[in-house]
Amino acid sequence: TPSPPPGFRSGFVGIVGRPNVGKSTLMNVMVGQKIAITSPVAQTTRNRLRGVMTLPEAQVIFVDTPGIHKPHHELGKVLVKNARIAIDSVDVTLFVVDGTGELGRGDLFIADLLKRSDVPVVLGINKADLQSESKAQMIDISYQALADENGWPVCKFSAVAETGLESLKASLMERLEAGPYYYPPDLVTDQPERFIMGELIREQVLLHTREEVPHSVAVAIEAVEETPKITNVLATVYVERKSQKGILIGKKGSMMKTINTAAREQMQKLIAGKVYLEVFVKVQERWRQSRTHLAELGYRI
Ligand code: GDP
Ligand code: K
Ligand code: MG
After folding, report:
1. What is the CATH number for 286?
2. ipTM score here?
3. Which residues pair with 212 in a beta bridge?
């Protein structure tokens, strides 16, 4: 790792907020590569995930977290615990809210956690592209009031339309201190490629199946074999019930084919090379209740 130029700043920015406000989408656009999967399903993000943005004058390490909500099972508890750790182990917290609706109870719950921590907070209003003109003002005022009460600066942006991101970057960098390169300038994530591959499969399951499947899916990458021409990936998708296995496979394998094709395309982008993907579906009852199995699947517990 090179030594940084004079005046270089660096540090860790924790991204927190309710499920589905766009935390993972924002991190991907900041680092310029898809390292975190996103979907309209809450609890898409299960692990803390670092994304590294290196600029000439600063290195910002984003820590994406699962959305904060009340836990109902072992996996849920692990998710919330990790989000709380994320709040206290960073230099700045970026509190992301959804600009399509006013400040709500879920946001206030998170605001209370943030008030109790000493870490500086930036409030980010996302999804500016979806705000209707008639409602925008009322919505922004509700968030601005919370920010003013706590002395938090506010940035408004759209992670999808990529607007307002420059001033967000500036606001975050302003709050970082002089520091080193924590990661090599060309690295974008701390996650092994294998983990992201598993996530890309899980993303397609989330995007293509309904309610009863998404939350009970876990993916294990069993083998990655690189040859000069192609990378062979072997994966297992775990579900909790036989009926879910049926849904995932689909009529004559049609669902699995759709999921496989889309996940493979994403993997090819990730590794910038050809991928052959083979996916098996296995039923493993109550995997979410088993801490051992969670650990095996790569969750920090
Ligand atoms: P997370 O749960 O907070 O990590 O949210 P995700 O990043 O998974 O995003 C949830 C959903 O909101 C996805 O369908 C995203 O495509 C969508 N989304 C995120 N940011 C924006 C945005 O700025 N504009 C619009 N229109 N959609 C967004
Ligand atoms: K989501
Ligand atoms: Mg997420």
Report:
1. 3.30.300.20
2. 0.99
3. none
Question: Per the domain annotation, does 4 fall within a domain?
Answer: no
Looking at the structure, tell me whether residues 72 and 160 fall in a common domain: yes
Does residue 203 sit in the same domain as residue 137?
no
Ligand 1 shell residues, CB under 6 Å: 17, 19-25, 38-40, 44-45, 67, 126-127, 129-130, 158-160
Give the residue with greater pLDDT, 43 vs 12: 12
pLDDT in tens, 147-170: 999 999 999 999 999 999 999 999
301 has pLDDT over 80: no
Residue located nearest, by CA, to atom 19 of ligand 1: 22
Q: Average the pLDDT over 56-67 and give the result.
A: 90
249-280 pLDDT, tens digit each: 999 999 999 999 999 999 999 998 999 999 99
CATH code, 136: 3.40.50.300
Enclosing domain of residue 214: 193-296
Distance 43 CA to ligand 1 centre (A): 12
Question: 14-18, 207-211, 242-246: which range is least confident on average?
Answer: 207-211
Ligand minimally distant from the alpha carbon of residue 25: 1
Ligand at minimal distance from the CA of 46 is 3
- Cα→Cα distances 83→35, 44, 88, 234, Å: 18, 14, 9, 31
The span from the CA of 255 to the CA of 234, in Å, is: 18
Angstrom distances, CA of residue 82 to CA of 61, 134, 176, 274: 17, 38, 23, 35
Residues 39 and 151 in one domain: yes
| Overall number of domains in the chain | 2
Ligand 1 atom 11 nearest Cα: 40
Q: Which of 18, 38, 80, 206 to mutate to test the pocket of ligand 1 (most atoms within 8 A of CB)?
A: 38
Residues 6+ apart with CB under 8 A from 270: 34, 193, 196, 197, 200
